């Protein structure tokens, strides 16, 4: 089977890679290239963590993904997964997100243990903990190289006999319950046996009737701060990734390779157009992040901003991914709505998509289009 995959980010590139592993012929398209500056899979790093509350499906998928990331490193000789461990900080008494995750993680070979405040303070004295209620330590968590992984995946696709084209590709005509090809910028049509669209924040634009009101795009600002002198304790491997579950969910990555100390706010801010909006740093957002940095990591109070970038999340109504067949074409498949946490699961998503296309293996119900639509319908009823 010849499969055309549109989008060389985490979902598309891993799908192309897994399709090739299972014997398919693959042509991969991306108009700006893998890990480009406007892609949701661009930038330097993404977190990988197994803690997903009491969600059995996600926990299992992350456990599988950890193994896939390790295998990918061994195969390519490129290190893309850095197991720093993760601090989970809860400033409120409700820490059930971590507590309910513990037995599931153990069942799948991962770990999460509670630390005392004193134990945490002794290990990481640079973190302000007076307002923290509980701390958990996730040993296997860490960070992944984002942009580079997409580029390495393309290398593997090409090595495996796949093709890559820098092309703007959009859905062609629907005839007789099938997609008849993808339209290219020069007006020509590219034909394959099956098609996958994994275009991140561009999915609602490509399928406006189906996804225009189902997937929303939010702006996400990322800031990097230069370390002061004598601050090696904020660098890899001396400091872990961290997730601060407070009024706003804040997270970050320690300085690695001189990139700076990464701080990100998980709050959704939108709407956002990934193609046309200038990706400039907003003064009010920088001020907000600096206040947080001064509070949680006092030694970085005067740390200079060394770089910043604007990314985006593609959000579904229930925070789940969209991994399904298009309802009007049995040879067209959709992979989107990364919801800010999809990158780490790229290997698992690629495997699920490839098995759905080649073997008709069912996708978990929560990732199907009907599930997302049902949640959206209930949400609209509540709002009105």
CATH homology group of the domain at 1-49 and 145-215 and 316-384: FAD/NAD(P)-binding domain
Low-confidence stretches: 377-384
What's the quaternary structure here?
single chain
Side-by-side strand order of the widest sheet = 6-7-5-17-18-19-16-20
Radius of gyration of CA atoms, rounded to a whole number: 21 Å
Helix content: 25-40%
Number of helices: 11
Keywords, please?
single chain; alpha+beta; 8-stranded mixed sheet; globular; disordered C terminus
Task: Give a brief outline of the structure.
The protein is α+β, with helices and mostly antiparallel strands and 384 residues long.
Architecture overview:
The protein is α+β, with helices and mostly antiparallel strands and 384 residues long. The protein has a domain at 1-49 and 145-215 and 316-384: FAD/NAD(P)-binding domain (3-Layer(bba) Sandwich). It is 30% helix and 25% strand. The strands form five sheets. The protein has an eight-stranded mixed β-sheet. It has a six-stranded mixed β-sheet with strand order 9-2-1-15-22-21, covered by helices on one side. Residues 377-384 have low confidence and may be disordered.
